[in-house]
Amino acid sequence: LGPNNSDSWSEPVGTPVFSPDPDLEQIVGAGLTNDDAVLEFDFVPSGDSVSFRFVFASEEYTEFVCSDYNDVFGFFISGPGFTGPFQNGAENIALIPGTTVPIAINTLNNGVAGINGTPATCDAAYVG
Questions:
Q1: CA distance linking residue 47 with residue 106, whole number of Å
Q2: 103-104 and 91-92: which strand pairing?
Q3: Model confidence pLDDT, tens digit, residues 3-60
Q4: What is the DSSP track for 11-49?
Q5: Rounded to an integer, what distance in angstroms lies between the CA atom of residue 107 and that of residue 111?
Q6: Using CA atoms, how far apart are residues 40 and 43, in angstroms rounded to an integer?
Q7: Are 85 and 25 spatial neighbours (Cβ–Cβ below 8 Å)?
């Protein structure tokens, strides 16, 4: 899509371009998601552990912090031994460190509303 040169471009989910992801919608809690991006893969571990490094980035950060537009990130793991609340018993491991709070622009901010946000709905969240 190019550089971050607009604060209002989006494509509603359910259009021919995008399909809704029920796991991401469950994290958001209400409303439809827009601009879903999903990377899914299967693997067989060669040992008893696996590690991943990820970075959360958002086109809507910082303009839409504390607004109804809440970009969210999910990292779901499923398989034998998992009994989470998401599809196929998956668990979301994309959480604010030391909490059970999902990673999103409205949970990963300094409590200051963006230019399109509302200060009254803005709580200081994880910063660090």
A1: 36
A2: unpaired
A3: 556 655 555 555 545 567 889 888 887 555 667 778 888 988 899 888 889 888 888 8
A4: -BTTSTT----HHHHHHH-SS--BS----------SSS-
A5: 9
A6: 10
A7: no
What is the CA angle 66-68-72, rounded to 5? 80
Burial 15-35 (b: 16+ CB within 10 A, else e): eeebeebebbbebbeeeebbe
If 0-12 CB within 10 Å is exposed, 13-18 middle and 19+ buried, where does residue 76 land?
A: buried
Fill in the amino acid letter for 69.
Y
Q: Which amino acid is at 95?
A: L
Rg of the Cα trace of the chain? 16
* DSSP secondary structure letter of residue 111: S
Per 3-state DSSP, the chain is made up of helix, strand and coil in percentages (nearest 5) of 10, 10, 80
Alpha-carbon span 38 to 22, nearest angstrom = 11
